[in-house]
Amino acid sequence: xxxxxxxxRPSRPPRFGVNYTPARGWxxxxxxxxxxxxxxxxxxxxxxxxxxxxxxxxWPVFQPNRTLIRPRAVEQLVALADAAAERxxxxxxDGLQGHLSSFDFLPAWTGTWHRRNIFRDPDVVAAQxxxxxxxxxxxxxxxxxxxxxxxxxINQFAGAxxxxxxxxxxxxxxxxxxxxxxxxxxxxxxxxxxxxxxxxAWYQDGHPFTPAQAARLGAATTVHSWVFNGxxxxxxxxxxxxxxxxxxxxxxxxxxxxxxxRPVWLQEVGAxxxxxxxxxxxxxxxxxxxxxxxxxxxWGVTWWCSHDVSRELADFPAxxxxxGLLTNDHRVKPAGAALAxxxxxxxxxxxxxxxxxxALALDVGGAEAAPGRSVCGPGGAxxxxxxxxxxxxxxxxxxxxxxxxxxxxxxxxxxxxxxxxHDVTGxx
Length: 428
Hints:
Protein name: Glycosyl hydrolase
CATH architecture of the largest domain: Alpha-Beta Barrel
Mean pLDDT: 96
CATH superfamily of the largest domain: Glycosidases
Strand content: 5-15%
CATH topology of the largest domain: TIM Barrel
Number of domains: 2
Protein backbone atom coordinates (compact mmCIF):
# COMPACT_ATOMS: atom_id res chain seq x y z
CA UNK A 1 0.00 0.00 0.00
CA UNK A 2 1.53 3.40 -0.97
CA UNK A 3 2.59 5.67 1.88
CA UNK A 4 -0.15 8.01 3.06
CA UNK A 5 -3.06 5.76 2.08
CA UNK A 6 -5.09 3.90 4.68
CA UNK A 7 -4.99 0.13 4.73
CA UNK A 8 -8.13 -1.52 3.35
CA ARG A 9 -10.69 -2.00 6.12
CA PRO A 10 -12.12 -5.44 6.81
CA SER A 11 -15.74 -5.50 5.67
CA ARG A 12 -18.80 -7.69 6.11
CA PRO A 13 -22.55 -7.10 6.20
CA PRO A 14 -23.71 -5.13 9.24
CA ARG A 15 -25.80 -6.94 11.85
CA PHE A 16 -29.40 -5.92 12.55
CA GLY A 17 -31.11 -6.90 15.77
CA VAL A 18 -33.35 -5.81 18.59
CA ASN A 19 -33.30 -5.50 22.34
CA TYR A 20 -35.78 -8.17 23.41
CA THR A 21 -38.59 -6.84 25.61
CA PRO A 22 -41.07 -9.67 26.23
CA ALA A 23 -44.60 -8.84 25.07
CA ARG A 24 -46.17 -10.31 28.22
CA GLY A 25 -44.87 -9.15 31.57
CA TRP A 26 -41.89 -7.14 30.25
CA UNK A 27 -38.68 -8.29 32.01
CA UNK A 28 -40.76 -9.56 34.91
CA UNK A 29 -41.40 -12.58 32.66
CA UNK A 30 -38.42 -14.22 34.39
CA UNK A 31 -40.63 -14.61 37.47
CA UNK A 32 -43.13 -16.84 35.61
CA UNK A 33 -41.11 -17.85 32.56
CA UNK A 34 -43.20 -19.29 29.73
CA UNK A 35 -41.21 -20.69 26.82
CA UNK A 36 -44.31 -20.65 24.63
CA UNK A 37 -44.64 -16.89 25.07
CA UNK A 38 -40.93 -16.46 24.37
CA UNK A 39 -41.18 -18.49 21.17
CA UNK A 40 -44.10 -16.39 19.96
CA UNK A 41 -42.11 -13.21 20.63
CA UNK A 42 -39.06 -14.57 18.84
CA UNK A 43 -41.20 -15.64 15.87
CA UNK A 44 -42.38 -12.05 15.46
CA UNK A 45 -38.79 -10.75 15.71
CA UNK A 46 -37.45 -13.28 13.19
CA UNK A 47 -40.27 -12.35 10.80
CA UNK A 48 -38.75 -8.86 10.57
CA UNK A 49 -35.61 -10.40 9.08
CA UNK A 50 -33.41 -9.48 12.04
CA UNK A 51 -30.44 -11.65 13.00
CA UNK A 52 -29.91 -11.20 16.75
CA UNK A 53 -31.50 -10.29 20.05
CA UNK A 54 -30.04 -8.72 23.17
CA UNK A 55 -31.44 -10.42 26.27
CA UNK A 56 -31.75 -9.10 29.83
CA UNK A 57 -31.74 -11.45 32.83
CA UNK A 58 -32.81 -9.58 35.98
CA TRP A 59 -29.91 -9.76 38.40
CA PRO A 60 -31.99 -10.09 41.62
CA VAL A 61 -34.03 -12.91 40.06
CA PHE A 62 -30.96 -14.84 38.96
CA GLN A 63 -28.77 -14.14 42.02
CA PRO A 64 -31.16 -13.40 44.92
CA ASN A 65 -28.49 -14.19 47.49
CA ARG A 66 -24.80 -13.44 47.22
CA THR A 67 -23.95 -17.14 47.20
CA LEU A 68 -27.00 -18.39 45.27
CA ILE A 69 -27.20 -18.28 41.48
CA ARG A 70 -30.50 -20.01 40.73
CA PRO A 71 -29.93 -23.04 38.46
CA ARG A 72 -33.51 -22.92 37.17
CA ALA A 73 -33.11 -19.30 36.06
CA VAL A 74 -29.89 -20.15 34.22
CA GLU A 75 -31.66 -23.09 32.53
CA GLN A 76 -34.42 -20.73 31.39
CA LEU A 77 -31.85 -18.37 29.89
CA VAL A 78 -30.32 -21.27 27.96
CA ALA A 79 -33.79 -22.35 26.81
CA LEU A 80 -34.40 -18.83 25.49
CA ALA A 81 -31.08 -18.93 23.61
CA ASP A 82 -31.96 -22.31 22.11
CA ALA A 83 -35.38 -21.03 21.03
CA ALA A 84 -33.64 -18.09 19.37
CA ALA A 85 -31.27 -20.46 17.55
CA GLU A 86 -34.24 -22.40 16.16
CA ARG A 87 -35.35 -19.13 14.55
CA UNK A 88 -31.96 -18.16 13.18
CA UNK A 89 -31.31 -15.55 15.84
CA UNK A 90 -28.02 -15.02 17.63
CA UNK A 91 -28.12 -13.96 21.28
CA UNK A 92 -26.15 -11.39 23.26
CA UNK A 93 -26.76 -11.46 27.01
CA ASP A 94 -26.53 -8.59 29.48
CA GLY A 95 -25.50 -9.63 32.96
CA LEU A 96 -25.94 -7.09 35.74
CA GLN A 97 -29.45 -5.66 35.44
CA GLY A 98 -29.03 -3.29 36.92
CA HIS A 99 -31.05 -0.49 35.39
CA LEU A 100 -33.82 -0.81 32.81
CA SER A 101 -36.31 1.81 31.61
CA SER A 102 -36.07 3.95 34.78
CA PHE A 103 -36.25 1.01 37.23
CA ASP A 104 -33.31 -0.28 39.27
CA PHE A 105 -32.90 -4.03 39.80
CA LEU A 106 -30.34 -4.58 42.53
CA PRO A 107 -30.25 -7.66 44.79
CA ALA A 108 -31.34 -7.18 48.40
CA TRP A 109 -27.84 -8.09 49.50
CA THR A 110 -26.49 -4.80 48.11
CA GLY A 111 -28.96 -2.39 49.75
CA THR A 112 -30.54 -1.04 52.93
CA TRP A 113 -29.33 -3.20 55.86
CA HIS A 114 -26.72 -4.76 53.57
CA ARG A 115 -25.76 -1.52 51.79
CA ARG A 116 -22.47 -2.05 49.98
CA ASN A 117 -20.82 -0.28 47.06
CA ILE A 118 -21.47 -2.46 44.00
CA PHE A 119 -18.22 -1.40 42.37
CA ARG A 120 -15.86 -1.51 45.35
CA ASP A 121 -17.04 -3.94 48.01
CA PRO A 122 -14.85 -7.05 47.67
CA ASP A 123 -17.64 -9.51 48.49
CA VAL A 124 -20.06 -7.91 46.02
CA VAL A 125 -17.45 -7.76 43.27
CA ALA A 126 -16.51 -11.40 43.77
CA ALA A 127 -20.18 -12.38 43.59
CA GLN A 128 -20.61 -10.37 40.39
CA UNK A 129 -17.64 -12.16 38.87
CA UNK A 130 -19.08 -15.55 39.75
CA UNK A 131 -22.46 -14.59 38.32
CA UNK A 132 -21.10 -13.35 35.00
CA UNK A 133 -18.84 -16.37 34.65
CA UNK A 134 -21.76 -18.70 35.36
CA UNK A 135 -24.03 -17.14 32.72
CA UNK A 136 -21.26 -17.08 30.12
CA UNK A 137 -20.25 -20.68 30.81
CA UNK A 138 -23.85 -21.88 30.53
CA UNK A 139 -24.01 -20.48 27.00
CA UNK A 140 -20.42 -21.09 25.89
CA UNK A 141 -21.24 -24.16 23.81
CA UNK A 142 -24.15 -22.52 21.98
CA UNK A 143 -23.09 -21.49 18.48
CA UNK A 144 -25.60 -18.62 18.43
CA UNK A 145 -24.23 -17.07 21.64
CA UNK A 146 -22.43 -13.84 20.72
CA UNK A 147 -21.14 -12.86 24.13
CA UNK A 148 -21.90 -10.98 27.33
CA UNK A 149 -22.45 -7.33 28.04
CA UNK A 150 -21.35 -6.64 31.61
CA UNK A 151 -24.58 -4.78 32.36
CA UNK A 152 -27.05 -2.32 30.96
CA UNK A 153 -25.92 1.28 31.57
CA ILE A 154 -24.65 0.29 34.99
CA ASN A 155 -22.63 3.51 35.06
CA GLN A 156 -25.83 5.30 36.09
CA PHE A 157 -25.28 3.87 39.59
CA ALA A 158 -21.93 5.67 39.86
CA GLY A 159 -23.04 9.29 40.18
CA ALA A 160 -25.66 11.97 39.65
CA UNK A 161 -28.49 12.02 38.80
CA UNK A 162 -28.92 8.69 40.65
CA UNK A 163 -30.54 9.38 44.03
CA UNK A 164 -28.26 6.95 45.93
CA UNK A 165 -25.06 6.55 43.94
CA UNK A 166 -22.20 4.14 44.53
CA UNK A 167 -19.33 6.60 44.31
CA UNK A 168 -16.08 5.60 42.60
CA UNK A 169 -13.30 7.33 40.70
CA UNK A 170 -12.17 6.63 37.15
CA UNK A 171 -9.36 4.29 38.18
CA UNK A 172 -11.78 2.22 40.27
CA UNK A 173 -14.26 2.11 37.39
CA UNK A 174 -11.56 0.86 35.04
CA UNK A 175 -10.45 -1.87 37.46
CA UNK A 176 -14.05 -2.99 37.96
CA UNK A 177 -14.69 -3.15 34.20
CA UNK A 178 -11.51 -5.13 33.63
CA UNK A 179 -12.49 -7.66 36.30
CA UNK A 180 -16.02 -8.06 34.97
CA UNK A 181 -14.86 -8.52 31.38
CA UNK A 182 -12.30 -11.08 32.54
CA UNK A 183 -15.09 -12.95 34.36
CA UNK A 184 -17.13 -13.09 31.15
CA UNK A 185 -14.12 -14.37 29.21
CA UNK A 186 -13.41 -17.00 31.88
CA UNK A 187 -16.87 -18.44 31.29
CA UNK A 188 -16.85 -18.19 27.49
CA UNK A 189 -13.33 -17.53 26.20
CA UNK A 190 -12.96 -15.50 23.04
CA UNK A 191 -16.56 -14.39 22.66
CA UNK A 192 -17.79 -10.87 21.90
CA UNK A 193 -17.76 -9.54 25.48
CA UNK A 194 -18.41 -5.81 25.93
CA UNK A 195 -19.60 -3.23 28.44
CA UNK A 196 -22.25 -0.56 27.98
CA UNK A 197 -22.78 2.91 29.41
CA UNK A 198 -25.36 5.61 28.92
CA UNK A 199 -24.06 8.84 27.46
CA UNK A 200 -22.83 10.41 30.71
CA ALA A 201 -19.61 8.54 29.90
CA TRP A 202 -19.28 10.73 26.79
CA TYR A 203 -20.97 13.96 27.88
CA GLN A 204 -20.68 14.50 31.66
CA ASP A 205 -17.62 16.17 33.17
CA GLY A 206 -16.22 14.18 36.08
CA HIS A 207 -18.21 11.02 35.42
CA PRO A 208 -16.04 8.07 36.55
CA PHE A 209 -16.82 5.95 33.49
CA THR A 210 -14.87 7.56 30.66
CA PRO A 211 -14.75 7.60 26.86
CA ALA A 212 -11.30 6.00 26.99
CA GLN A 213 -12.67 3.03 28.95
CA ALA A 214 -15.61 2.71 26.55
CA ALA A 215 -13.38 2.74 23.49
CA ARG A 216 -10.51 0.60 24.76
CA LEU A 217 -11.91 -2.13 27.02
CA GLY A 218 -13.81 -5.11 25.67
CA ALA A 219 -14.20 -6.56 22.20
CA ALA A 220 -15.99 -3.50 20.80
CA THR A 221 -17.24 -0.08 21.77
CA THR A 222 -20.96 0.13 22.46
CA VAL A 223 -22.96 3.33 22.13
CA HIS A 224 -26.50 4.07 23.30
CA SER A 225 -28.06 6.85 21.27
CA TRP A 226 -31.04 8.51 22.92
CA VAL A 227 -32.14 11.87 21.54
CA PHE A 228 -34.23 12.74 24.61
CA ASN A 229 -30.92 13.85 26.17
CA GLY A 230 -31.42 17.42 24.91
CA UNK A 231 -30.70 16.74 21.25
CA UNK A 232 -34.29 16.51 20.02
CA UNK A 233 -35.37 19.27 22.40
CA UNK A 234 -32.83 21.63 20.83
CA UNK A 235 -32.92 20.48 17.22
CA UNK A 236 -36.34 18.92 16.66
CA UNK A 237 -37.28 15.44 15.55
CA UNK A 238 -36.04 15.90 11.99
CA UNK A 239 -33.06 18.12 12.79
CA UNK A 240 -29.64 17.21 11.47
CA UNK A 241 -28.21 16.73 14.96
CA UNK A 242 -31.14 14.47 15.91
CA UNK A 243 -31.03 12.25 12.84
CA UNK A 244 -27.22 12.05 13.06
CA UNK A 245 -26.96 11.61 16.84
CA UNK A 246 -26.10 7.90 16.56
CA UNK A 247 -23.51 8.63 13.87
CA UNK A 248 -22.02 11.33 16.08
CA UNK A 249 -21.60 8.93 19.01
CA UNK A 250 -20.02 6.37 16.69
CA UNK A 251 -17.51 8.97 15.53
CA UNK A 252 -16.76 9.99 19.14
CA UNK A 253 -16.09 6.32 19.85
CA UNK A 254 -13.72 6.12 16.88
CA UNK A 255 -11.78 9.14 18.20
CA UNK A 256 -10.82 7.42 21.46
CA UNK A 257 -10.07 3.98 20.00
CA UNK A 258 -6.43 2.89 19.89
CA UNK A 259 -7.25 0.45 17.09
CA UNK A 260 -8.44 2.45 14.05
CA UNK A 261 -10.57 -0.52 12.97
CA ARG A 262 -12.13 -1.23 16.38
CA PRO A 263 -15.79 -2.18 15.85
CA VAL A 264 -18.55 0.02 17.23
CA TRP A 265 -21.90 -1.51 18.15
CA LEU A 266 -24.91 0.80 18.08
CA GLN A 267 -26.40 -1.25 20.89
CA GLU A 268 -29.38 0.91 21.76
CA VAL A 269 -31.26 3.43 19.68
CA GLY A 270 -34.97 4.16 19.53
CA ALA A 271 -37.61 6.70 18.56
CA UNK A 272 -38.97 8.22 21.79
CA UNK A 273 -42.39 9.86 21.53
CA UNK A 274 -43.43 12.63 21.66
CA UNK A 275 -39.98 14.06 20.87
CA UNK A 276 -40.09 11.83 17.80
CA UNK A 277 -43.82 11.80 16.99
CA UNK A 278 -45.32 8.43 16.05
CA UNK A 279 -45.94 9.57 12.50
CA UNK A 280 -42.22 10.39 12.21
CA UNK A 281 -40.88 7.15 13.74
CA UNK A 282 -40.28 5.39 10.41
CA UNK A 283 -38.45 8.40 8.98
CA UNK A 284 -36.32 8.70 12.12
CA UNK A 285 -35.48 5.00 11.96
CA UNK A 286 -34.47 5.13 8.30
CA UNK A 287 -32.40 8.30 8.71
CA UNK A 288 -30.70 7.20 11.92
CA UNK A 289 -29.64 3.82 10.55
CA UNK A 290 -28.53 5.23 7.18
CA UNK A 291 -26.41 7.87 8.90
CA UNK A 292 -24.94 5.39 11.37
CA UNK A 293 -23.94 3.04 8.55
CA UNK A 294 -22.19 5.93 6.82
CA UNK A 295 -19.56 5.53 9.56
CA UNK A 296 -16.76 2.96 9.23
CA UNK A 297 -16.40 -0.15 11.38
CA UNK A 298 -20.00 -0.36 12.57
CA TRP A 299 -20.58 -3.91 13.85
CA GLY A 300 -24.34 -3.57 13.79
CA VAL A 301 -27.51 -1.84 14.94
CA THR A 302 -29.69 -3.20 17.76
CA TRP A 303 -32.96 -1.27 18.05
CA TRP A 304 -34.73 -0.49 21.30
CA CYS A 305 -36.93 -2.38 21.53
CA SER A 306 -38.80 -5.44 20.23
CA HIS A 307 -42.28 -5.10 21.79
CA ASP A 308 -44.12 -2.24 23.45
CA VAL A 309 -44.47 -2.15 27.22
CA SER A 310 -48.02 -3.12 28.15
CA ARG A 311 -50.16 -0.26 29.43
CA GLU A 312 -51.26 -2.66 32.17
CA LEU A 313 -47.87 -2.06 33.81
CA ALA A 314 -47.62 1.08 35.95
CA ASP A 315 -45.15 3.85 36.62
CA PHE A 316 -42.99 3.79 33.50
CA PRO A 317 -42.03 7.16 32.01
CA ALA A 318 -44.53 7.88 29.24
CA UNK A 319 -41.97 7.54 26.45
CA UNK A 320 -41.08 3.96 27.48
CA UNK A 321 -44.44 2.42 26.59
CA UNK A 322 -44.38 2.75 22.80
CA UNK A 323 -40.76 2.20 21.77
CA GLY A 324 -41.39 -1.27 20.34
CA LEU A 325 -41.03 -2.29 16.72
CA LEU A 326 -44.03 -4.50 17.47
CA THR A 327 -47.16 -4.13 19.57
CA ASN A 328 -47.93 -6.45 22.47
CA ASP A 329 -50.01 -8.60 20.11
CA HIS A 330 -47.10 -8.83 17.64
CA ARG A 331 -48.37 -6.39 15.03
CA VAL A 332 -45.59 -4.63 13.11
CA LYS A 333 -45.40 -0.88 13.65
CA PRO A 334 -44.06 1.61 11.06
CA ALA A 335 -40.60 1.70 12.65
CA GLY A 336 -40.54 -2.11 12.60
CA ALA A 337 -41.45 -2.18 8.92
CA ALA A 338 -38.72 0.39 8.24
CA LEU A 339 -36.03 -1.61 10.05
CA ALA A 340 -37.16 -4.78 8.25
CA UNK A 341 -36.72 -3.03 4.88
CA UNK A 342 -33.29 -1.79 5.89
CA UNK A 343 -32.16 -5.23 7.07
CA UNK A 344 -33.37 -6.79 3.82
CA UNK A 345 -31.58 -4.18 1.72
CA UNK A 346 -28.24 -4.90 3.45
CA UNK A 347 -28.45 -8.69 3.38
CA UNK A 348 -25.22 -9.98 1.84
CA UNK A 349 -23.81 -6.48 1.23
CA UNK A 350 -20.46 -5.58 2.69
CA UNK A 351 -20.31 -2.50 4.87
CA UNK A 352 -17.66 -0.33 3.27
CA UNK A 353 -18.43 3.41 3.53
CA UNK A 354 -15.84 5.81 2.16
CA UNK A 355 -13.41 7.29 4.70
CA UNK A 356 -14.47 10.41 6.53
CA UNK A 357 -11.57 12.43 5.25
CA UNK A 358 -12.40 15.64 7.15
CA ALA A 359 -12.13 15.50 10.93
CA LEU A 360 -13.09 17.96 13.63
CA ALA A 361 -10.49 18.22 16.39
CA LEU A 362 -11.79 17.64 19.91
CA ASP A 363 -10.10 19.09 23.00
CA VAL A 364 -11.50 17.73 26.28
CA GLY A 365 -8.52 18.64 28.44
CA GLY A 366 -6.83 15.25 28.12
CA ALA A 367 -7.98 12.03 26.51
CA GLU A 368 -7.74 9.74 29.53
CA ALA A 369 -9.88 11.57 32.11
CA ALA A 370 -11.67 13.87 29.63
CA PRO A 371 -12.35 16.54 32.29
CA GLY A 372 -13.94 18.85 29.72
CA ARG A 373 -16.11 16.33 27.89
CA SER A 374 -19.31 18.37 28.36
CA VAL A 375 -18.36 20.18 25.14
CA CYS A 376 -19.41 16.93 23.43
CA GLY A 377 -22.99 17.03 24.69
CA PRO A 378 -26.03 18.75 23.17
CA GLY A 379 -25.49 22.50 23.38
CA GLY A 380 -21.75 22.04 23.83
CA ALA A 381 -19.43 23.86 21.46
CA UNK A 382 -18.05 20.72 19.87
CA UNK A 383 -21.42 18.98 19.50
CA UNK A 384 -22.96 21.99 17.80
CA UNK A 385 -19.95 22.54 15.50
CA UNK A 386 -20.04 18.88 14.37
CA UNK A 387 -23.77 19.16 13.71
CA UNK A 388 -23.27 22.40 11.77
CA UNK A 389 -20.60 20.79 9.60
CA UNK A 390 -22.89 17.85 8.95
CA UNK A 391 -25.78 20.17 8.04
CA UNK A 392 -23.49 21.70 5.38
CA UNK A 393 -23.22 18.30 3.72
CA UNK A 394 -19.85 17.27 5.13
CA UNK A 395 -19.14 13.90 6.77
CA UNK A 396 -16.92 14.87 9.72
CA UNK A 397 -14.94 12.36 11.69
CA UNK A 398 -13.72 13.21 15.20
CA UNK A 399 -10.04 13.28 16.14
CA UNK A 400 -8.66 13.96 19.60
CA UNK A 401 -6.62 17.16 19.81
CA UNK A 402 -3.64 15.09 20.99
CA UNK A 403 -3.73 13.12 17.72
CA UNK A 404 -4.68 15.88 15.31
CA UNK A 405 -1.08 16.21 14.11
CA UNK A 406 -0.16 12.52 14.21
CA UNK A 407 0.38 11.50 10.57
CA UNK A 408 0.19 7.77 11.26
CA UNK A 409 -3.09 8.06 13.14
CA UNK A 410 -4.66 10.32 10.53
CA UNK A 411 -3.49 8.09 7.69
CA UNK A 412 -4.83 4.94 9.32
CA UNK A 413 -8.26 6.55 9.53
CA UNK A 414 -8.17 8.12 6.05
CA UNK A 415 -8.23 11.67 7.43
CA UNK A 416 -6.67 14.27 5.13
CA UNK A 417 -8.04 17.51 6.65
CA UNK A 418 -8.42 18.57 10.28
CA UNK A 419 -10.71 21.44 11.23
CA UNK A 420 -11.19 23.08 14.61
CA UNK A 421 -14.35 24.36 16.23
CA HIS A 422 -13.44 27.97 15.47
CA ASP A 423 -13.10 27.09 11.78
CA VAL A 424 -16.79 26.14 11.85
CA THR A 425 -18.19 28.77 14.19
CA GLY A 426 -15.93 31.67 13.22
CA UNK A 427 -15.25 32.43 16.87
CA UNK A 428 -11.83 32.74 18.44
